[in-house]
Amino acid sequence: MSSRRVVSVVALGAVIAALAGFPAIASGYHLALGISLLYFTVLATAWALFSGPTHYISLATAAFFGIGAYTTAVLTEILPWPLVLLAAAAIGVVVALIVGLSTLRLSGIYFVIFSFGLTEFIRQLVTWYEVNIHGSVGRYIFAGTTSEGIYWRLLALAVLVLGTGWLIRHSRLGLAVRVIGQDETVARHCGIDTTRAKLALFAVSAAFMTVTGAVMAPRWTYIDPAIAFNPVLSFEVVIMALFGGAGTLFGPLLGAVPLVLLFEILIATFPNYFSIVLGAVFVLIVYALPNGVIGFLQTRLAPMRRTARQISMSTLAEKLTRPVWSHVAERAAVNDGPVLLLDRVRKAFGGLIAVDNVSFDLRRGEILGLIGPNGSGKTTALNVISGALRPDAGEVALDGRPIALLPAHRIAQRGIARTFQLVRVLPASSCLENVVAGLAFHVPPLWGAKADGRARVLLDRVGIAEKLDAPAGQLNYIDQKRLELARALALSPNVLLLDEWLAGLNPSELQIGIALVKMLREEGLTIVVVEHVMDAIRSLCDRCIVMNAGRKIAEGPPAAVLSDQEVIRAYLGDADA
Amino acid sequence: MLEISAVSAFYGKHRALDNVSLNVGRGEIVVILGANGAGKTTLLKVIGGLVPAATGARIVMAGRDLTATSAHQIVEAGIALVPEGRGIFSELTVRENLTLGAFPARARAKEAATLEMVLKLFPRLKERLRQAVRTMSGGEQQMVAIGRALMTSPDILLLDEPSLGLAPITCTELFRALARVRSSDVGLLLVEQNARQSLKIADRGYLIESGRIVGSGTGLALKEDPAVQRAYLGTGEVHSGQFAPISP
Q: What is the ipTM of this complex?
């Protein structure tokens, strides 16, 4: 353990101890304030565990909080207290899993609306139960818990939720949801089971919210559904987390503390004008701190972003002649048949048949060119192979095993990696993290220092090693393409799909790109290139498939295919570019 | 028509453009050739008002100083940018995308006539006016992007790699269309990797390297220049810094 780390652990312990000792010196009012600060901190941090990285804005906080409160109200006289908390967490997880399975497919505003509706739905459900089964709407809670007890429990919960948040941030799950938040398609093609990752985090976040509700319930000696499921709570938590900075671990804390204090001061000073003053203060805050507290601190503390150095082409050419990197060959099978086989694949969008009864095979170690006019179905074919789209009919087989119905992340794990026609990097993540995203989710996963080391090798391989800390969004177009290739190679694929990876290069850069692709093939990769650059097709491809209007119109060596009359008429035209 | 001089631009500390000067006349096609990262896109963005130029720069359009003018006013002054990656509104129809282009005051009165001109230039768009752009092929989307820029009835059209990702046959059609745009008296400043086809239609060209203009000449002269042939026409090995500077 480094001395710096020892210092921070000791400091953290001292802070926790000081906070734990607070009730000894606090008046009743200050203790109540301390409870408010802690419970909003826990809720906002728990909310940001899920919503921060995924950008799914959830308004279901009040639903989970209320479930927890009711669990205490119902069970506190039947079960010992620790079991009540466990029961609350378990119910929270189960509800989160059911809700998550049915709604996490929803995106953007639909998820927000649903999560808001969930609170109301559960409130109505509880009311119905209380009226018809229990016989009265409200319940009295005689838990016999003191304010100090609640304070200490909340403090423990705060430490626990921050600790959990820290662990998740440094885990593969944390990386998975950061990737999902930036680009779900990329996440799936990195081998991430996006549904599972989102569900897991949603459930963890919900468990903390329910337990908070359970801990807080004895504060009210009487609760009814309107108190427990108060939708305002959901909004307060969102505002606090966003105000502090939902993307960071301590952001929600930095939002919750000043806002709770602000509420207190405003209520004490302007009891009659609370709402209107609060509104005005919010407007001022948004105006003064558009990026939240964390954003403000970051721009103040780190005004200089490191600027990426430009790499000269000669250095890049040198890199290519470095010792061959051999990770790919490990998975190369003994099987002699085609690596990939497409059999009468068909994919239609409404009335438009994008891929119409296309069959071809991919032989081990070859570079296959897939060419054809814009809109002829090449990218759709790649999407079917990589699992981004499911074919309407036909079969796709990898090493003789059908993959057409597998989800994209399974196909990525089986060894098919791809780049995208319009470059897709994770703009807010560093280059290193972009590549680690490709390493961390295949089987077996690579993680920690090993993954970082491997990612450095891959970044070096594509010529952007010195940019590993730069956010990918700051790279220029060509470096983003390189980064995307490094991420694809991180999957240790057998088959690499390059969708116009060489587009936009000038002739000398093109030569370097072509050399790189050739070298990848020599290292054991089988490659499909979709390209419009005929120089690349001629010098790279062993075979070409030409598509037009969704159909295969020619197949053969480049020289033969490119002189085919139908190909010239449909694709090349009179001037060869 | 468009004259820029002493333009430098920075991203943080990184100097993307270094004292660049060039001009584009009415009805002229000027091409900028250079490696990726040389500053071509930045140059177009500076002219279009999307990236600020460092102090000392002058951007003058038809006698009017546009330095430090905001992007939408630059469009009003008659400069339209077709950005790299097209930047079309994919959920809108072709007609909506084109109509949006005619939003600037300078274009509104002429909207119907310009639309007719654009549809004549790209007959394919006429058949697809009501189609959502998202569902169209790359070549057609590029036509929409250029068409939308033309709808602002510009005097100068800035094009950032319009041939990117286009099939050879579509590429040829595109360059033919650009040559026709010139004949309507619009000046074109074209950034291209496809040096072969762009030099074929260019009146003049500039070579840019590490943010600096390192050479210029007529389209024909550049096409014949051995250094340009080596670096941009893919007829040999390349070493950087070998261009014989052609005096501007």
A: 0.77
